[in-house]
């Protein structure tokens, strides 16, 4: 450690052991938490911070891959407007930070980043695949920021490659690490 500011890395809150998932549980990922010695981790849960409760009804990506929506599995309630409002505000907040990386939770209708999730229509038919709603908006706004999920970081070479990409991004942005 040389005293230079650490790179900022956004993280899905559930990966840091916070119980914000739809089922009231977390998805603690030790290798994600281990980035804390090298980066400033910035947690965020788009669903909870949009005001959704814990626990809550599980959800999926509905509509179509071109126009994805956030839909409750049982109620088929459409929460897209609510959740996208918080997501767009979060992207504005992140634009004012030295963000240099992001680790998302796999398999989530909000946070899936590396492997896409299925998109279902109202009759339960598969219409294609999509990233989570937060990730789609994030990638559009910050295409230069390296992203990974906890599965990529579970492997040591994936962890090291991601950290190096974060450091490169941080240096390009004027950071010193
Ligand atoms: S995957 Fe994303 S939306 Fe789901 S609990 Fe974790 S941080 Fe929240």
What does the model show?
- The chain has helices at residues 30-33, 80-95, 133-141, 150-154, 156-172, and strands at residues 8-12, 40-44, 59-63, 68-72, 99-104, 117-120, 126-130, 147-149.
- It has 5 helices and 8 strands.
- Strand 3 and strand 4 (68-72) form a beta hairpin.
- It is globular.
- The protein is of the alpha/beta class and 177 residues long.
- The chain has one domain (8-172).
- The structure holds iron/sulfur cluster (SF4).
- Iron/sulfur cluster (SF4) binds at residues 12-14, 20-21, 45-48, 105, 108, 110-111.
| Helical content band | 25-40%
Small molecules bound: iron/sulfur cluster
Low-pLDDT runs of 5+ residues are none
The total beta strand count reads: 8
What's the mean pLDDT score?
95
Radius of gyration: 16 Å
- What spatial order of strands do you see in the largest sheet? 2-1-5-8
Features:
5 helices, alpha/beta, 177 residues, four-stranded mixed beta sheet, binds iron/sulfur cluster
In short:
The chain is α/β, with parallel strands linked by helices. The protein contains 5 helices and 8 strands, in the order βαβββαβββαβαα. The protein has a 4-stranded parallel β-sheet. A 4-stranded mixed β-sheet has the order 4-3-6-7, with no helix packed on it.
SSE layout and pairing:
Layout: E1 8-12, H1 30-33, E2 40-44, E3 59-63, E4 68-72, H2 80-95, E5 99-104, E6 117-120, E7 126-130, H3 133-141, E8 147-149, H4 150-154, H5 156-172
Parallel strand pairs: 1-2, 1-5, 3-6, 5-8
Antiparallel strand pairs: 3-4, 6-7
Helix pairs in contact: 2-3
Bound molecules: iron/sulfur cluster (SF4).
Iron/sulfur cluster (SF4) binds at residues 12-14, 20-21, 45-48, 105, 108, 110-111.
């Amino acid at each position: 450690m040389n005293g230079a500011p650490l790179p900022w890395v956004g993280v899905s809150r559930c990966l840091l052991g916070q119980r914000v998932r739809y089922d009231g549980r977390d998805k603690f990922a030790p290798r994600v938490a281990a980035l804390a010695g090298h980066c400033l981790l910035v947690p965020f849960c788009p669903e909870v911070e949009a005001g959704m409760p814990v626990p809550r009804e599980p959800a999926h990506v509905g509509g179509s891959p071109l126009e994805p929506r956030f839909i409750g599995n049982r109620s088929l309630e459409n929460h897209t407007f609510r959740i996208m409002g918080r997501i767009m505000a979060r992207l504005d907040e992140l634009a004012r930070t030295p963000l240099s990386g992001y680790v998302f939770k796999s398999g989530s209708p909000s946070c899936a980043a590396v492997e896409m999730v299925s998109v279902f229509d109202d009759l339960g038919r598969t219409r294609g695949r999509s990233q989570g709603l937060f990730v789609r908006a994030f990638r559009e706004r910050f295409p230069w920021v390296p992203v990974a999920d906890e599965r990529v970081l579970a492997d040591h070479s994936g962890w090291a490659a991601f950290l190096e990409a974060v450091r490169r991004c941080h240096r390009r942005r004027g950071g010193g690490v």
